[in-house]
## 1
Amino acid sequence: MRRRGALTDCWTLRFERLPPVRTVRSYPGQRSVTRDYWMAKTGGTVSCESHLERHHAMLLDFDPQVSDLVGQPFRLFWPGRRGGRGHVPDFFARLGDGGGLVVDVRPDRAIEPDDAEAFAATARACELAGWSFRRVGLIDPVLLANVKWLAGYRHPRNQQDAVAEKLEEVFAEPMPLLAGAERVGDRLAVLPVLYHLLWRRLLEVDLAAGVLGPRSVVRQAVAVR
């Protein structure tokens, strides 16, 4: 059931538990392919309108501070410079501390004056509601490649407790990824569990330093999340 009201009447709603306010649909001649993202944290799907949005949904799923995520969460209305305006942000994320994060995905080069006005209005509304606002764009290609690789192992089926325990013991001291995996057992059986632990942040690697590979240095996480 849709509801429209003042910001002060709505900011306590659990948007992450509500359906999107609009449906993402594909259409002939569309430049971006729409594809929902399956979120490991919740087992649900998040509506995305482009590959870039899907990649940012993946990064939010990977973010240890994010506990839940929904696409197209609400429509914000405000009096604009050309009359009444409305805007649907791309994502609403619920944070582990109970706070909210609103995210709009738009590269710098694609921001028109109406977009800038919409983002400014959304940022102001978030400030009043006590949420954070983030406008994000293109992603560092190395970081994106690494997180996409780990996301391929995000499903819980890759959690093998006995193997995971040995991996955490081995990587108590930092060492190259493949060398540590081979200390535990056959790489074909061990590597999926290792990548799953990296996705869950139980093990750590510098994902911005270079493309993940056999010599990437892996260590136990400083704090288990």
## 2
Amino acid sequence: MARPRRIDMELVTQAQVVAAQASDVESLRCAQAVLLPAVLGATLEQTAMLLGVGRASVLRLQSRLRQFCAKPGAERPSWGGRRRASLTPEEEGDFLARWQDESNAGEVLVASPLRAALAQRLGHPVAASVVYRMLARNGWRKVAPDTRHPKSDPQVQEAWKKNSPKLWQRS
């Protein structure tokens, strides 16, 4: 059996104040996450069901209220972001600047040298998908070459079609 959670009465008082003055749903939920177990004796599962969140979210909401009461006006932490990023967005931009002139001149940028240079800079091998995602984040896009060869001659191709053996054509 889990040990019962001790509820700080000062936090309950602060939660009542926050609930009374709540201007958004998030602050009201934080206050309710503290008040429901403290005042009504609800379990975490019951509190989660009443608030429409998961059990773990009730604990996060309670923690957020504690942080808010300790530091009023503090911003809540973001769940998003690149937690495993090898380079900051600025470093990525600086890294890609080396190839910017080549791409502006119309040359084809091949990912394999870019991948090798990135692996050398980071000191460990990187997957090709890392390079492609980095290019996409920085506004680069994949431009495929044309479907016909630049030196092809449509008139010569038509003449070949007319004069070629009919073996490959269906009757």
## 3
Amino acid sequence: MSKFNTILVGALATVLFAFVSRNQIESRQRPEDPKKDVKNIVLVHGAFADGSSWSKVIPLLEAKGFKVTAVQNPLTSLNDDVAAAKRIIALQDGPVLLVGHSWGGVVISEAGNDPKVAGLVYIAAFAPDNGESLNDVAKAATPAPGNEQVRADAAGFLYLTPKGIFEDFAQDLPLPERKVILATQGQWAAFTTGEKVSKAAWHEKPSWFIVGGKDRMINPALQRILAKKINAQSLELNSSHVPMLSQPAKVAAFIANAASNVDSKGFASK
């Protein structure tokens, strides 16, 4: 190799080394992209129910690659239910999309303040504001007819009559499925309806809302009011109070879309 070629090769090597070194330094200094896929979905059931109310949605979300966990609410107080949700949130390995149905909307409004929660999804749910209870929220619209089928036992726990389950809670499900809901319904401490949320997470976390257009437990008009109030991206389904059981594919798709459009810092993607 000639002296000229040796000098040329050396010069090129020096330039290449400088270029690589500069890129390495810049890559270390460049801030990481804050957006991460939210892969953890935590589902919070409502009153008169248990975690099996998500039985049709869970496999659909898992098929999309999400890690899904359903909370089992004790339904004994707001604090107890929030604590149950937060225990499940703590077990997740990254940011969480928190989903609540019915009374579960009250629970996620409080539990959603957990720093791991990136977004909230309300499904035919209550969404109280700071210092509000379920009773406070319900005053904004005429009570739905299913409320007439709520009964209290001697210990002060609420339950729904068979008529309430069959005609008001899950009227768009096949009869065998309605019978399972009746047999598995959770009794709900009556005083919880007056317990107030201290800080509503939807003020700071992006939110989504599914309205049950044929809901006979929570007036659909109230659901529309709440969805607008919390500035939620919303979808209305022609469903009963349990769209996750009567229209699971649409509910799962809505939840998956929410998870894909919120980053780990709790900002909705544009």
## 4
Amino acid sequence: MNVPRTNLQNRLQQRQAKTIKEKQVINEVKAILKHHKVATNKFNFDALETNRIYHINTIKHICTTYRLRFLDLKYFKPELPEEAHSEIRMLEKKHQTKLDGFKVMAPSKLFKLEDKDDPLLFVPLGNDYYYLIHKWGNDLHPLRKILVWPFKSIGNLLLVLLAISLLATILLPQGLFSKTSSASQFWIIYFFVFKSLASVALFYGFALGKNFNPFIWNSKYFNA
């Protein structure tokens, strides 16, 4: 059975719909564009697609859920596709302005080497709102959310380590360390397995400079 891949634009829309009313977004962005002192780019509000406007909290939530980064375009290694350049030119012509301050949402590896996993190109509107210009590449793997869940917090990581340790202890052959088995022996082995896995996880984290999702989503540093 083919599991559908994760479309980040759809996830952004779903998250924003849960947290911010569309009318609130419209009113706030109207106010931003009306007073250009707080607007990063000068847009004609009536020419904007409101379903492409996202608050920074929505972007942060998606980044921390799927372990993505949201960084300035200059840190993005692959070349933007021609479709993205075309969208930028079209927007600039429609709004009679020159856009700047571009941001990209993508997996961390795309800020170090070329790949093609679902990047999204944004431009700031001001007051923590961003306008989605273009999405390209492949959608994310459907299991990515589950695979990166342990890295959302230390609590999540501990739960995963505890569960894996329990499964590993259960799968160990009875009598491997002693001719007789008992509950106390089971928990001693469980503690040993957990300590071993935790040590490996800590070594991996410190040695490779890994950190939890909430601390890296907008960091430009590899070992944030």
